[in-house]
Automatic annotation (TrEMBL):
Bias kind Basic and acidic residues: ranges: 221-236
Family as reported in the entry's similarity comment: Belongs to the short-chain dehydrogenases/reductases (SDR) family.
GO molecular function per UniProt: oxidoreductase activity, acting on NAD(P)H, oxygen as acceptor; oxidoreductase activity, acting on the CH-OH group of donors, NAD or NADP as acceptor
Protein name: Putative oxidoreductase
Domain of life: Eukaryota
Length: 275
C-alpha cells in the first residue's frame, strides 16, 4: 500500500483543500465489492475531488484504486473482527487532519444457523456476527467522533431490510442490522453535530446474494428460497450503483433532518440525492 498521507508529500493535502474547497475526506469500509465498490467509484468520479480512505477484503482492488488515483486514495487492510485494527483505521485521519464522513458498509451474514442449530456453539456465531457488523462500527465511530464533530460530518450505514423482516437462519444478521438502526437513532440523540443515516439498499446483485443462493438457501424456508432464486432468475436484483450512488451523495451532503432515520434507498425523502 502507498504512503500514509494523500498526495506526493505531507503538505499536498493543504494545497488540495485550498484548490478544491468542496472536497471531503471520507472513510469507506467494504469498498472492494458490490455496493461499497459502487460508492467508491461514485465519489472518485465527482468533480469535487474527494479524498478516500478505503478498506475491504480484496487487496487487489484496493491496490488498483491506489494506482488509478495515487493522490486521492489511501487503502488500508483491516480485519473487522479485530477491534484493535478497527480502532487503528481512524488513526489515519490524524495524518490528514480531518474526517468529514464515515460510510460503514462492511458486514457478514455469518453461517446462517437457526437458533436450534447453535446448541453447543456457546453463542460464538452470534458473537462473531455482532463483532463484525455492530461492535466494529461502534469502535470506529467512537474513535472518529472528535473529527466528525469538528467537521459537522456524517455517518452513513448500509443496513438491511432483514432488520425488520425475519428470515429463518438469518437471526444473527437481522438482529445485527436492527442494532445498527438503533445505533443510528442513538447517535442522533447523543451527537447532534453529526448527521447519521441508515440505508436499506434493497436486494442487490452482490457477492452476498451469490453466497445466499449457493451456500445458505437450504437452511431457509421454501418460500424464502424461491424468493432469492427468482430475484436472480427474473432479473430483479438491483445494480449496486442504485443504492451506492445514494449512499455516496448522503455522505457528502445529507441534511440534518434525515439524522436518526432508517430509509430505503428509493424513499421519496431521498429524491434530492439522486444525481
Amino acid at each position: 500500500m502507498a504512503t500514509a498521507w494523500f498526495g506526493p508529500s505531507p503538505d499536498w493535502i493543504w494545497k488540495h483543500r485550498t484548490e478544491h474547497p468542496s472536497a471531503k475526506t471520507i472513510l469507506l469500509t467494504g469498498a472492494t465489492g458490490g455496493i461499497g465498490l459502487a460508492v467508491a467509484r461514485r465519489l472518485l468520479s465527482s468533480g469535487d475531488e474527494h479524498l478516500l480512505i478505503l478498506t475491504g477484503r480484496n487487496v487487489d482492488v484496493l491496490r488498483q484504486f491506489e494506482r488509478e488515483h495515487p493522490d486521492r486514495v489511501r487503502a488500508v487492510q483491516c480485519d473487522m473482527a479485530d477491534l484493535g485494527q478497527v480502532a487503528g483505521l481512524v488513526q489515519h485521519c490524524e495524518v490528514h487532519g480531518s474526517l468529514d464522513a464515515l460510510i460503514l458498509n462492511h458486514g457478514t451474514l455469518g453461517n446462517c444457523l437457526r437458533v436450534a442449530q447453535m446448541a453447543g456453539n456457546k453463542g460464538e456465531e452470534w458473537e462473531r456476527v455482532f463483532k463484525v457488523n455492530v461492535t466494529s462500527c461502534v469502535v470506529m465511530i467512537s474513535e472518529a467522533l472528535p473529527w466528525l464533530r469538528q467537521a459537522k460530518g456524517r455517518i452513513i450505514f448500509t443496513s438491511s431490510g432483514a432488520a425488520q423482516n425475519a428470515y429463518p437462519s438469518w437471526g444473527a444478521y437481522g438482529a445485527s442490522k436492527a442494532a445498527i438502526n438503533h445505533l443510528t437513532m442513538t447517535l442522533k440523540n447523543e451527537e447532534p453535530d453529526v448527521t447519521t443515516v441508515a440505508i436499506r439498499p434493497g436486494v442487490v446483485d452482490t457477492a452476498m446474494q451469490k453466497d445466499i443462493r449457493e451456500s445458505f438457501l437450504s437452511n431457509m424456508d421454501e418460500k424464502d428460497q424461491q424468493k432469492f432464486r427468482s430475484a436472480k432468475e427474473d432479473g430483479k436484483l438491483l445494480p449496486p450503483e442504485k443504492p451506492g450512488n445514494i449512499i455516496a451523495e448522503l455522505a457528502v451532503s445529507a441534511e440534518k433532518e434525515l439524522s436518526g432515520s432508517f430509509l430505503s434507498w428509493d424513499d421519496p425523502k431521498l429524491k434530492d440525492y439522486v444525481k
